[in-house]
Specification:
mainly alpha; 3 helices; flat
């Protein structure tokens, strides 16, 4: 006996509930794709981009970058790969 043979078929009521739920979900997704979004995607992208790129100017970020380079690139104890 395989696992799928133990699955009980949903009742007609459960099938109708699932179908109605799917239709409501599809309607909600369609409404989110409308021409008037709640959030201006381009403006939000620009703000997020400005925040992320501004990190480059912070001293602690510069120090961390140097630390990472020192560890992974400029490490004299690192064994070189020779072929």
């Amino acid at each position: 006996m395989t696992a799928y043979q133990n699955i009980i078929r949903p009742s007609k009521k459960d099938q109708k509930t699932a179908s109605d739920s799917l239709l409501a979900y599809e309607a909600m997704v369609r409404s989110l794709k409308s021409s008037n979004p709640i959030v201006d995607i381009e403006e939000t992208r620009k703000q997020a981009s400005d925040i992320v790129w501004s990190f480059r100017k912070k001293d602690e970020v510069k120090q961390e970058g140097k630390r990472i380079l020192q560890k992974h690139v400029n490490n004299p104890n690192r064994k070189s790969k020779t072929k």
